[in-house]
Here is the input.
Amino acid sequence: MIGRRAPLLALLVVLLVGCQRPVVQRTIEAPYGERQVWAVVPLENETGSRYADGLVMADELIRALEQVQAIDVLPLNRVLQAMDALKMPRIETRDDAIHLREALGVDALVVGTMTHYDAYDPPKLGVALDLYSWPAHARPRPIDIRRLTWEPLGDRAGIRRGTLYSMQQPVTTVSGYFDAAGVGTKELIDDYAYGRGTTPNALHESRLYTINMNLFQAFVSHEMGSQIIWAEWQRLARAIRDERRQAAAQEQPATP
Here is the structure.
């Protein structure tokens, strides 16, 4: 009896797997020539809501950035210990950020602010991030400039990208506002939620990310982490183009 059921069970498994939407594993790759270590500071709460927690958001950002190839992220408690040792309750100035980055010995420090927080269905969350890095150390590897064209993905969620190439600190700034009721954000949630293991029902998975603030914060952290890496690709690509222009200008013979 068991022998007769085995082929039927195998066929059922094949049918069930075949009916499921294929899960696409997406990896984010950093644009640097060598592995880097980053750190994330607890986000400041400028939302006006006492429920917004910068520690929780920093933890979510750390998890998101840990998924980036060639980037390791310090645990949040290491950052808090360093801030305590420096008697630095928060990052108030550019010099504070640079001092903390140097004290931690990391390649880059992410400093951010929660600008909007509404946990009621549909949730809304606004975040702004600054990246402080060692300009001389963040040396880009060879990049195919043709790959570095704007993707509409981030624009659908209203992401603004700033400071793509600057020797000033911060070197990169990104900000975003995510409204779970917005069409663009819903599309991003659909892409992010599928295959995350919350439930075998794809529609139910997406819905969970629009009613559970913890899951929504994880989604926003993923998007913001992706955007800061993408902005770094753009910044370093701009640096390469400028260097090439300068080299070409120096090689041109002077006109008599």
